[in-house]
Amino acid sequence: MSNDISGTVADRQRSRAGRRAAVPNPAGQIAPPRQRRPALAALALLLIVGGALVAGLLAVRMDSRVPVLAASQPIEPGMQITEEHLQVVRVASEDIPVIPEEFTDEVVGAYATTRIEPGTLLTENNVSSEDPIPDGRAIVSVPLVGELAPAATVRSGDLVQVVRATSASGGTEKAEVLGTAYVLEVTEPETDDLGSSTDLPTASLLVLDQVALSVIDAAGAGEAGLAILDSGLDPDVDLEDGQ
């Protein structure tokens, strides 16, 4: 047997070198490019397109809001409207008979046909180019107090009899007829977030001027009652006093 092991050692060294060359170097390996997932890419595209559509719809919605006239302060029935009474707001005017800002000159000098609260939009129903108070008549407001004047039954266009309901000494109700009146409008009070209000509905009444003070006095004392005589009438209906 030969004792020369140099060939065997050389063979082993070459074998180890070959194995090292055959094993890839993790540190130097270049990872292949990742493949994108089609579903995620499609979802991202949908989100981008959806966001653009929403933004477009909002822009169109804002463009549909037009400048219109509203009351900047309370306007009493029959009062002539001035520039100080007006403000401009932007609203979506579909199906609302609002008055565009461009008609400001026509509204200034016109008359309020009913009481107009601040922030209320001006419409063809609460503004008139003609004085709504004919000679010999006046417009007064009467709160619709429960059993005296139920808000659920009094309507615009009604002819009503205005009475003063006072308590007699015997504890019974004694009614004094003040006159007849035409109901111009019934205004509901504003409510809070819970739907409640401390105010009462009010009726704007067209009455003869000689009974206006009596009606105002009865309304202020919470004693004004209304009895409906007729409905669906025009404002030029004949009115009477309580004499």
UniProtKB/TrEMBL annotation:
Residues 66-128 form the SAF domain. CDD domains: SAF_CpaB_FlgA_like. Residues 1-33 are annotated as: Disordered. The keyword Transmembrane helix applies. Keywords: Membrane, Transmembrane, Transmembrane helix. Pfam families: SAF (PF08666). The chain crosses the membrane at residues 39-60. SMART domains: SAF. This is SAF domain-containing protein.
